[in-house]
Design brief:
The protein is of the alpha/beta class and 402 residues long. It has two domains: 149 residues, Aspartate Aminotransferase, domain 1; 239 residues, Type I PLP-dependent aspartate aminotransferase-like (Major domain) (Aspartate Aminotransferase, domain 2, 3-Layer(aba) Sandwich). The chain has 13 helices and 15 strands. The protein has an eight-stranded mixed β-sheet with strand order 2-9-8-7-6-3-4-5. The chain has a three-stranded antiparallel β-sheet with strand order 11-15-14. Helix 7 links the parallel strand 6 and strand 7. The longest helix is centred in the C-terminal third of the chain and has 20 residues. The radius of gyration is 21 Å and the shape is globular. The structure holds pyridoxal-5'-phosphate. The site of pyridoxal-5'-phosphate has 13 residues, from helix 4.
Length: 402
């Protein structure tokens, strides 16, 4: 049986051949240090107990399908959450709940794109965005995020890449893989471009609460109220429950301009009946009250310590530099090409895996154009981070020597 030609250029290498190679090595009995996936569960970072208890409490009553856009109480809680954060005009009708942000990204693009339409996507990006655009028959055009400028988007590059086919811009803030958090003036410039060129903003804010130091998160939609904007977020990261699959999209901007699109999105939502209902019951509990992620990211918190340690150890290796992450769960270090003349970063990561039994993700998997970066996940414990960097350091020393 042949696969659809629509899949020909669709790539998602984070779960690709290198991941498979690691699984095979584990089956052979090797212990692989996994610094590659943004999944909190394997590292003892558990969901808040109150939320798990709440879901268990609702299990019996959550056996039936729900409204395709999601249960009313959860959508109300989401809209109220945004109202308290500067999006005064948002209402329950503006929210659609999905099986994680992943499902909604595909659904929202499918409802929007015609063959050949272009969407501007950051490089590096979370590669689902590029894959999902490609799957619709559209074209992902990558704009550069500037490492020398805190990994903030290069707005001149964004504007230079707008053509008559461009329909929207993807913003990932806080960013995976770079950990960048964008200041207001960057978001305002995006809003200005959207206004000028009649574009839709797709703002992926799944890491909005995973912030270090004095980083603050601003919703794109809050600085672009007159622009059509889709804001994506969910429970996977801040509430450490990626397996429960609960995410949402908020649609804002002029009602008249978004009316037809909202109908199309509702149609697509109804084709898959509804999102996982038990997890929807966790949303209201999560968004109200104490935010348990705060304890992990503030000074002395586990994620904060791991971020600091990983950064310190990685940048102590000759030829390794790294912009410290202001948010999210990753570092995206650079390997100086003069010391490490890597031709294929995919092969580099595979060689590292085979040689040192450690798994990281190659930068080009995030649509970064040069073979000189890798992504290092900061979720594993301090001990695992120390061991992982020791192994990377050993491997790189041999690379320099050879
Ligand atoms: N967006 C970004 C930037 C991510 O990093 C991820 C997962 O790692 C997702 C979306 C997917 O989130 P969800 O678990 O809600 O599908």
């Amino acid at each position: 049986m042949q696969h659809s030609s629509k899949l020909r250029n669709v790539r998602y290498e984070l779960r690709g051949p290198i991941h498979e190679a690691a699984k095979n090595m584990e089956a052979e009995g090797h212990r692989i240090l996994k610094m590659n996936l943004g999944d909190t569960a394997p590292f003892g970072l558990e969901a808040p107990e109150s939320v798990v208890v709440d879901m268990i409490h609702h299990l019996r009553g959550a056996q039936g399908y729900s409204d395709s856009k999601g249960i009313f109480t959860a959508r109300t809680a989401i809209s109220q959450y945004y109202q308290t954060r500067g999006l005064m005009n948002i209402g329950v009708e503006d929210i659609v709940i999905g099986n994680g942000v992943s499902e909604l990204i595909s659904m929202c693009l499918q409802a929007f794109m015609e063959n050949g339409d272009e969407i501007l996507v950051p490089a590096p990006d979370y590669p689902l965005w590029t894959a999902a655009v490609t799957l619709t028959g559209g074209k992902a055009v990558h704009y550069i995020c500037d490492e020398a400028e805190n990994w903030w988007p290069d707005l001149a590059d964004v504007e230079a890449k707008i053509t008559s086919r461009t329909k929207g811009i993807v913003i990932i803030n806080p960013n995976n893989p770079t950990g960048a958090v964008y200041p207001r003036h960057i978001l305002e410039q995006f809003a200005g471009l959207a206004r000028k060129h009649n574009l839709v903003l797709f703002s992926d804010e799944i890491y909005e609460k995973v912030l270090y130091g004095d980083a603050t998160h601003i919703h794109t939609a809050a600085v672009a109220e007159d622009v059509c904007c889709l804001t994506f977020s969910g429970l996977s990261k801040a509430y450490r429950m990626p397996g429960y699959r609960a995410g949402w999209v908020a649609i804002t901007g002029p009602l008249a301009a978004t009316a037809a699109y909202r109908e199309a999105l509702e149609l697509l939502a109804s084709l898959r009946l509804c999102a996982n209902v038990p997890a929807q019951h966790a949303i209201q509990t999560c968004l109200g009250g104490y935010q348990s992620i705060d304890a992990l990211v503030k000074p002395g918190g586990r994620l904060r310590e791991q971020r600091d340690l990983a950064h310190k150890l990685l940048t102590a290796i000759p030829g390794v530099t790294c912009v410290p992450a202001s948010g999210a769960m990753y570092l995206f270090p650079r390997l100086d090409p003069d010391l490490y003349p890597i031709e294929s970063d995919e092969k580099f990561v595979l060689d590292l895996l085979r040689d040192q039994k450690i798994l990281v993700s190659h930068g080009s998997a995030f649509n970064w154009p040069a073979p000189d970066h890798f992504r290092f996940v900061i979720l594993p414990s301090v001990l695992d981070i120390e061991e992982a960097v020791r192994r990377i350091s050993t491997f790189l020393a041999a690379y320099r020597g050879g």
